[in-house]
Amino acid sequence: NFKLTPSNLQRIFSSWSPCYKKRDIPHNMMMTYGDPCTPTDKEVPEPVIRVCVWPVTPSDELPDDLLFRPAVCELSGHILLHNEELYRTITETQIIDTLKRTALCHNEFEELVNSFKRHILVVIS
After folding, report:
1. What's the CA gap between 61 and 93, in Å, rounded?
2. Which of 2, 57, 107, 108 has its CA 20 to 30 A from that of 89?
3. Cα 81 to chain center, whole Å?
4. What pLDDT, in 10s, does the model give residues 95-117?
5. pTM score, two decimals?
6. What region does 60 belong to: left with phi over 0, alpha with psi -120 to 50, or beta?
7. How far from 4 is each of 11, 29, 45, 59, 69, CA to CA, in Å?
């Protein structure tokens, strides 16, 4: 967990997003208000800005036999199906399996997380 100021937040993401682009790593980012990551004595804690960044597998590297394209549902939670029969028959297990097939491998994801942490530490120091 990192506690960032608004100026740090701006510097981190304005410099990190181009790194993803240069490495050709598609990604999504969402910012939202939330409770602090660490407990507080305040009855009503001050909200913090939570930033979620998640890299995804490039669509041209995805298998052709996917039931749907996960990039459409990652942010909104909606699954776009172009086939009425599939719409009527798809199961939760099939959806989970499709999402797992398109996720980054564990090592690749861990390398990106560690790289991002190093980047944050350089920016806020």
Report:
1. 22
2. 57
3. 22
4. 888 888 888 888 988 888 888 88
5. 0.60
6. alpha
7. 10, 16, 16, 32, 34
